[in-house]
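To assess whether ligand presence alters the predicted conformation, the chain was also submitted together with zinc ion. Input:
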Amino acid sequence: MRVLGIETSCDETGVAIYDSEQRLLGHILYSQAELHAEFGGVVPELASRDHIRKLLPLIKEVMTQSQTQTVDAIAYTAGPGLIGALMVGAAVAKSLAMTWNIPALGVHHMEGHLLAPMLEESPPEFPFVALLVSGGHTQLIEVAGIGRYRLLGESLDDAAGEAFDKAAKMLGIGYPGGPRIEEYAKRGRAERFIFPRPMVNRPGLDFSFSGLKTFTRNTIADCDEAGILDDQARADIALAFETAVAETLTIKCRRALEQTGHQTLVIAGGVSANQHLRCALQQMIDKHSDRKLYYPRKEFCTDNGAMIAYTGCQRLMAGQREGFEIICQPRWSMESLPPL
Ligand code: KG4
Ligand code: ZN
């Protein structure tokens, strides 16, 4: 089965062609980052309008690129995400499906992230614990198979990616925040600032990043007042912040593995591109010989069409179908998804 994947949940237009036999045949990503940069965050209305402009030309391009004349089905992101942005992908998917007389299926964006490591050469095997860290979600999930998810813990306030974005904004180092913090942190000195590791002393697997955000804001204000908020101070703060997030996530992941008895950890979502986080998790995993860590290649950590094409393909091959009505779910629990 050959599937066209469409991702338009936020500020990236992603398209891909996935074939169940030949695997990923092509993918293209268009990022709107530049469009939103001057506003310091995503402007939903601008995002939807840009998806309208870009989506059809990108679909044509990816089909040419992968020498695909016809597809057997279309998978599109139906949620969670920005409603206007989701509507563009859903409307285009359903219109093409009607014209080509093929099925179109709405895919859960976070399930797409969760399954993105399956696109790699040596994919993880079920069951495993997954840490999903994106701009909107921070979740620990026990994964028994596709659609067999149990939420172990999640953020009570900001998502990890959101915390990165806000910290970068406070530091005045640009948007999107995650990659900018990572870049600055590389020049940071580890000993200068020590930030708190939120909620690690409390039992359970939930997260909270609002205290860390306040601590970051106060540290920046103190440096500013003392007249020492230069580029080096920004780099030092970025490193202290990144270290605190990476360590907090690592402690909770270790706890989730111990609690469930699983040996495999999968990380996915935009923040899983962070090298500091990957190293901290790898160190934790390497302490036990039977434990293994999996993550997607960097370009498939952040939003992309390939993960949607792959996820849709699995569900379509299992016979899942929906009608031609346009369905979008800006809020949508992964636990409500049907198991395969
Ligand atoms: O998964 P994603 O592309 O979109 C959502 O589904 O939200 O994640 C975007 C988030 C943003 O908050 C961005 O700052 C963060 O992932 N991010 C990173 C890195 N790359 C992207 N955070 C830390 N380090 C990175 N290298
Ligand atoms: Zn995402």
